[in-house]
Amino acid sequence: MTVAAARRRVRIRVTGTVQGVGFRPYVHRLAAELGLTGFVLNDERGVVVEAEGEPGAVERLLARLPAEAPPLAAVERVVAEPRPATGERGFAIVESEAGGERLAIVAPDSATCADCLRELFDPGDRRYRYPFVNCTNCGPRFTIVRGVPYDRPLTTMAGFAMCAACRAEYDDPADRRFHAQPNACPACGPRAVLTDAKGRRLAAGDQVAAAAALLREGTIVAVKGLGGWHLACLAADERAVAELRARKRREEKPFALMAAGLEAARALVELSPADEALLLGRERPIVIAPRRADAPVAHAVAPRSAELGVMLPHAPLHHLLLHDVGAPIVLTSGNVSDEPIAYADDDARERLGPIADAFLGHDRPIHMRTDDSVVRATGEGPLLLRRSRGYVPAAVPLPLEAPPLLACGAELKNAFCVAKGRRAWVSHHLGDLTNWETLRSFREGVAHFERLFAVEPEVVAHDLHPDYLPTAYALEREGVELVAVQHHHAHLAACLAEHGEEGPAVGAIYDGTGLGSDGTAWGGELLAGDLEGFERAGHLLPVRLPGGDRAAREPWRMACAWLCAAGADVSRVPPALAGDVPAERWRAVARLAAGGPTAPPTTSAGRLFDAVAALCGVRAVTSYEGQAAIELEACAAPGPARPYPIAVEPGPPVVIDPRETIRCVARDAAAGRPAAAVSARFHAALAAATAEAVAAVAAARGIGTAVLSGGVFCNRRLVEQTARALRAAGLRVLVPRALPPNDGGIAYGQAAVAAARTRGRG
Ligand code: ZN
Ligand code: ZN
Ligand code: FE
Predict the structure, then answer these.
(1) pTM for the whole thing?
(2) Average pLDDT, stretch 216-241?
(3) N or C: which end of the chain has fewer CB atoms below 10 A?
(4) What is the Cα–Cα distance from 483 to 631, expressed in whole angstroms?
(5) What DSSP state is assigned to residue 334?
(6) Among candidates 117, 118, 14, which has minimal Cα distance to 74?
(7) Average pLDDT of the chain, as a whole number
(8) Alpha helices, DSSP H, located in 481-576
(9) What is the spatial distance between Cα 448 and Cα 498, in angstroms, rounded to a whole number?
(10) Number of other CB atoms surrounding residue 760 within 10 Å
(11) Cis ω before 546 (30° cut-off from 0)
C-alpha cells in the first residue's frame, strides 16, 4: 500500500484570541473525529496545528476549524501551508515552550455557560450552588489576570491550590475544564462570605442564601462581582431604593437592575429580538430599553426616565442570588456619587460602609476594576454607551497597519488604547481623568496593557488640549513620536475605522465640547475627511458660553445665551425658569452672554440641547453630565412631529442656525405648550437640518458616506431620525457599533489617525 502518497499534511497557523479559551482540546477533538494525526501547540503568535491524513479530511478540518471554534475564541486568520507527510501516529497536545507566549491574548470575562449553569443548580453535582463554578468556556478572565502568559500563577487564583478532582479535570484534554485557569470547587476554591462593614460574619451556612434573605427584607447589601463591588436592594421596594439613593448621594441618575432571566426582564422593559440577544450574550451588558408601564419597580429607580437599564446575571454568584431573592434587584456601582467603583475589599468596606448594611464578598481578589458595560437599543442598532466588562480586552480591528502605539484618549469618560499591526486593544472605561487618583489608575492601566499585548509604543497619540491630564501624560513619554489629534476628528476616524473604512466621509459630530483646531470650543461639527485629515466643512452657529464650565452644569445659562443670540427679549426670566433662577443672576448672565472673556464662543450641540431643556422647563440645573439632554429626549412625545423652522446657510462653511427654532421653543413654552411636544419638534428640526447640511457637503465633494457620532448621538431619537433622512438623501450612514459614540471611543479614533499619519514610515 502506498500510504504516504494518499496522505496530505498541512501546517496551520491560527491567530486571534485562541489561547486560554479551550482551543487546543477543541482541535484535538476535531482531529480525532476526522481521523487525523499530528499535533497542536500554543506559541507567541497564537496556535499552530500540524495535521496529516486523508486529503478530504484535511480539507474538512480547514473548513471546520474557524467555523466551530469554542465560544470564547475569536479567530482572526487561518493560514495553511503544505508539509511533507511523515506517517506520524496519534494526535498530541504539545506543551508550550517556556517564555514563548508573548501574544497570549487574554479573553474578556464571560457569562456562566449553559453547562456550568446546569451544574450550579444540580443537587447531585459536586459544584451544586458553588458561586465560583466556571470552565474553559466561561468565567473570569481579564479581571483576574496579573500578567502574561495567561497561566494560573499570574492570576488572582494563584493562592488557591487545586484539589485532586479539579487537577484531574485541568489535566484532561477531553475535559471541559482542561487548562481552565480559574478552575475551582467548594473543596479548594474561593468562598463567599456575608459580613458587616467591620468584616464580622453575619450568618452560618449558605452565605448567598443569607444575603438573599436580607435583600428580601429590604436591606441594602454590597455584593462583590467580577470587576468590582455593587450595591443591591429589592427593585420594587420604594423605601429601600429611596434609602440607597439618599446614602449614595446620587440624586437623579437611574439605577441599573438585574433580573433572573429573560422572562423577568420582559416584565420590566420592552425588548426587541436584538435587545434580547444582547441581554443573553456572553458580554452581559446593561441593556437600556423602554420601560413597561406596569414594570414592578420603585419610582426612585429611574425618576424622569422613560427607560430602564437591565442586565442578566453574569457570574454564578448572581445566578444564585437572583434565584434566591426571586425578584429583580437594583445592582448599581459600588461607589459614592461619581467616584470610581470600589474593587479592593478594604476600600469597599471603608467607602461603602456608610451605604450598605451587609457585604456579600469573597476571597478571590479582583486585579482589574471593570464597570458594567452599557448598551442602548435603537432603530439604528445597539449603541454601546460604555464598553467595559465582557468586552474588554477583545481586540478591535484596524483597517490599516499601525506601528506599536498608545492613544491616550479624552479627559472625560476616558479609555485608552494600545495598538500594533491591524489590532487595537481599547481599555476598560476609566471614567473622568480629572484628578491624580484617576490618573494613577490610568498610568497603571497603560503599563498593564503594554505588558499584556507586548506593545512598546513608538508613537503616542493625544488630544490637542494641552490641559488634559492624558495629554500631559503623553508629553511626558520619552523617545516616542507624538501625534496630536483634534477631538472631533478622532470621533469621525473611530467610526470609520471600526467599520473597516478609511473614508472619505462627511461626519456630523455632536458632543459637549472638544478643543477645535482654531482654539475655540467645538461641539456641533460637520467634518469632511478621512483617517488622515479633515476639513471643517460646517458647524452649528456659535453662541457664548456664559461662565465657561459652569454653563454645562447650569443649562439655564445656555437658555439665556441662545435667547440673546436669537435676539429675543432677555430682560425678564422666562416663565418656565422663574422658580429656578433669581432675576438678578439671570440679568448678570444676560450681560455675560453679550460677550467677554468669561463667555467664550462655542458651537456645542450638547449646550443647544441644554438650552432647549431649560427653556421648556425640563431642567434648569443638572446633577450629572448630560442630564438635561437625556431628560429632554425622555420627555419627547412618541411618533413623528412637525419640525420647528431651522435655517441651514449654505456657506461655505455650512452653518446650522437654530435661532428661529429657539424663538419658537421660547414662544411655545411661554404659551404653556407641553415639553413633550416642544421636545419632539426640536428633535425633528435638528435631525432635518443635520441631514440637509451633511447631504449638501457630501454632494459638493462627491462623497457618498455619512458618519454620525459624538456623545449627543447617544440620543436614540436624534440618531434614528437623522440616519433615516440621510438615507432618503441617498447617503450610506455609519454609526458607532463596536465603540461608544461618546468620548469612550476617542482613543481608538486617535489610534486610527496616528496609524494613517505614520503610514509607510520606518
Ligand atoms: Zn462554563
Ligand atoms: Zn477543587
Ligand atoms: Fe466628544
Answers:
(1) 0.92
(2) 97
(3) N
(4) 37
(5) S
(6) 14
(7) 93
(8) 487-498, 550-553, 555-565
(9) 24
(10) 5
(11) no
Grid cell at residue 376: 442602548
* Contact in structure between 269 and 289 (CB atoms under 8 Å): yes
Report the separation in Å between the CA atom of 251 and the middle of ligand 3, taken as the mean of its atom positions: 25
Higher pLDDT, 206 or 45: 206
Q: How many other CB atoms are there within 10 angstroms of residue 326's CB atom?
A: 11
Grade residue 339 by pLDDT with cuts at 50, 70 and 90.
confident
pLDDT, residue 762, reads 52
- Give the number of whichever ligand sits closest to the CA of residue 411: 3
Ligand nearest to the CA of 135: 1
- Ligand nearest to the backbone CA of 745: 3
Separation of CA 135 and ligand 2 centre (Å):
12
Mean pLDDT of 708-726: 97
Ligand lying nearest the CA atom of residue 491: 3
Q: Do 359 and 348 meet the contact criterion of CB atoms below 8 Å apart?
A: yes
Dist. CA 524 → ligand 3 center (Å): 10
DSSP lists the bridge partners of residue 538 as: 526, 654
Q: Say how far apart CA 495 and CA 755 lie, in whole Å.
A: 15
Ligand 3 geometric centre to CA of 739 (Å)? 13
Summarize pLDDT for 624-666 with one digit per residue, the tens.
Answer: 888 999 999 999 998 899 999 999 999 899 999 999 999 999 9
Q: Residues 492, 749: contact at Cβ < 8 Å?
A: yes
Distance, in Å, from the CA atom of 496 to the CA atom of 687, rounded to the nearest integer, reads 21
Please check the confidence at residue 416 and state whether its pLDDT lies above 60.
Answer: yes
pLDDT score of 165 = 98
Tell me, what amino acid is at 387? Answer: R
Q: What is the predicted pLDDT for the residue at 348?
A: 93
Looking at residue 434, its pLDDT comes to 83
Residue 143 near residue 109 (C-beta atoms within 8 A): yes
d(CA 52, CA 344): 50
Q: Which amino acid is at 418?
A: V
DSSP 138: B
Domains of the chain by range and CATH?
3-93 (3.30.70.100), 192-362 (3.90.870.40), 395-497+744-757 (3.30.420.360), 507-736 (3.30.420.40)
Whether pLDDT at 102 is above 70: no
Q: Cell match 446633577: residue?
A: 623
Cell numbers representing residue 610 in the block: 441644554
State the pairing for strand pair 374-376/286-290: parallel
d(CA 356, CA 218): 11
Per residue, the 3-state secondary structure of 186-239, as one string, reads CCCCCCEEEECCCCCECCCCCHHHHHHHHHHCCCCEEEECCCCEEEEEECCCHH
Spacing, Cα 606 to ligand 3 middle (Å): 10
Axis crossing angle, helix 659-670 with helix 675-701, rounded to the nearest 10 = 170
Residue 229 CA to ligand 3 centre (angstroms): 29
Q: Which ligand is nearest to the CA of 117?
A: 1
Q: 430: CA distance to ligand 1 center in Å? A: 28
Measure 617 CA to ligand 2 centroid, in angstroms. Answer: 60
d(CA 661, CA 685): 8
What is the spatial distance between Cα 253 and Cα 230, in angstroms, rounded to a whole number? Answer: 15
Distance 152 CA to ligand 2 centre (A): 14
Ligand 1 mean position to 745 CA, how many Å?
A: 31
Q: What are the residues whose beta carbon lies below 5 Å from ligand 1 (ion)?
A: 113, 116, 135, 137-138
Expressed in angstroms and rounded, the spacing between residue 162 Cα and the centre of ligand 2 is 5
Mean pLDDT to the nearest integer, 196-218: 96
Fill in the amino acid letter for 752. A
State in Å: Cα 509 to ligand 3 middle: 8
- Among 102-106, 162-166, 244-248, whose mean pLDDT is lowest? 102-106
Distance (angstroms) between ligand 2 centre and the Cα of 119 equals 14
Task: For residue 314, report the distance from its CA to the centre of ligand 3, in Å.
Answer: 30
What is the 131 CA–ligand 2 centroid distance (Å)? Answer: 13
Instruction: Give the SS3 label for residue 41.
Output: strand
The ligand with the least distance to the CA atom of 316 is 1
